[in-house]
């Protein structure tokens, strides 16, 4: 009887865990980050749907004005930052904290350049007569400001987390013992994993938003 029960336990132990089981085993930090990204994606999806609906109802033809070139430049910059961020996990696996710090610093710098180009893009919109407020403002123009500004706000939130991670890596790289502790700490690895996932998510999100602006502006 006991042997049969033990065999059943062994058979059950070999079964692949269910989807819910795998979710339960995820660290709380990653779960919170993934849920936050899902919420952000839903929010932007609703905003884009509202923008497209408002744009179509306005009856104004598309292509009357060119989309600010700064938006195109910022897209290229953000793609470059996604590449530099993608190198972070490889450098961490190679225990190369010095190169990891430079990689994170480059990503942070490119994020700042992206935010600056977005501001220049808003100034270009004002030059074209598209304002967020005032008698000449339009609902579709307001959506462009709102959606792009919200994206920059979420990017800045990621940059603050990236800055904190960069400072930790720089501090750990100054001492061999701290460097070893940092590399062997799974919590830091999860932080880097979450940061990379979030940055790529913000990148893909902007590419999708830029595509909508490109065809609907």
Automatic annotation (TrEMBL):
<feature type="transmembrane region" description="Helical">
    <location>
        <begin position="100"/>
        <end position="122"/>
    </location>
</feature>
<dbReference type="Pfam" id="PF00510">
    <property type="entry name" value="COX3"/>
</dbReference>
<feature type="transmembrane region" description="Helical">
    <location>
        <begin position="70"/>
        <end position="88"/>
    </location>
</feature>
<dbReference type="InterPro" id="IPR035973">
    <property type="entry name" value="Cyt_c_oxidase_su3-like_sf"/>
</dbReference>
<feature type="domain" description="Heme-copper oxidase subunit III family profile">
    <location>
        <begin position="34"/>
        <end position="217"/>
    </location>
</feature>
<dbReference type="InterPro" id="IPR013833">
    <property type="entry name" value="Cyt_c_oxidase_su3_a-hlx"/>
</dbReference>
<comment type="similarity">
    <text>Belongs to the cytochrome c oxidase subunit 3 family.</text>
</comment>
<dbReference type="InterPro" id="IPR000298">
    <property type="entry name" value="Cyt_c_oxidase-like_su3"/>
</dbReference>
<feature type="transmembrane region" description="Helical">
    <location>
        <begin position="142"/>
        <end position="167"/>
    </location>
</feature>
<keyword id="KW-0812">Transmembrane</keyword>
<dbReference type="InterPro" id="IPR024791">
    <property type="entry name" value="Cyt_c/ubiquinol_Oxase_su3"/>
</dbReference>
<feature type="transmembrane region" description="Helical">
    <location>
        <begin position="198"/>
        <end position="216"/>
    </location>
</feature>
<protein>
    <submittedName>
        <fullName>Cytochrome c oxidase subunit 3</fullName>
    </submittedName>
</protein>
<keyword id="KW-0472">Membrane</keyword>
<feature type="transmembrane region" description="Helical">
    <location>
        <begin position="29"/>
        <end position="50"/>
    </location>
</feature>
<keyword id="KW-1003">Cell membrane</keyword>
<keyword id="KW-1133">Transmembrane helix</keyword>
């Amino acid at each position: 009887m006991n042997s049969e029960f033990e065999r059943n336990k062994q058979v059950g132990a070999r079964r692949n865990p269910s989807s819910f089981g795998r979710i339960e085993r995820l660290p709380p930090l990653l779960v919170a980050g993934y849920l936050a990204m899902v919420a952000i994606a839903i929010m932007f999806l609703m905003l884009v749907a509202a923008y497209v609906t408002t744009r179509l109802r306005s009856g104004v033809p598309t292509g009357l004005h060119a989309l600010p070139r700064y938006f195109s430049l910022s897209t290229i910059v953000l793609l470059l930052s996604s590449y530099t961020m993608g190198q972070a996990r490889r450098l961490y696996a190679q225990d190369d904290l010095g190169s990891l710090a430079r990689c994170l610093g480059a990503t942070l710098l490119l994020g700042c350049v992206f935010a600056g180009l977005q501001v220049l893009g808003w100034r270009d919109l004002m030059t074209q007569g598209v304002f967020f407020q005032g008698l000449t403002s339009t609902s579709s123009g307001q959506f462009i400001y709102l959606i792009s500004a919200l994206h920059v706000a979420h990017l800045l939130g990621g940059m603050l987390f990236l800055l904190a991670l960069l400072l930790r890596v720089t501090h750990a790289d100054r001492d061999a013992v701290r460097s070893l502790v940092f590399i062997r700490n799974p919590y830091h690895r999860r932080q880097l994993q979450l940061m990379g996932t979030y940055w790529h998510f913000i990148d893909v999100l902007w590419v999708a938003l830029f595509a909508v602006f490109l065809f609907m502006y």
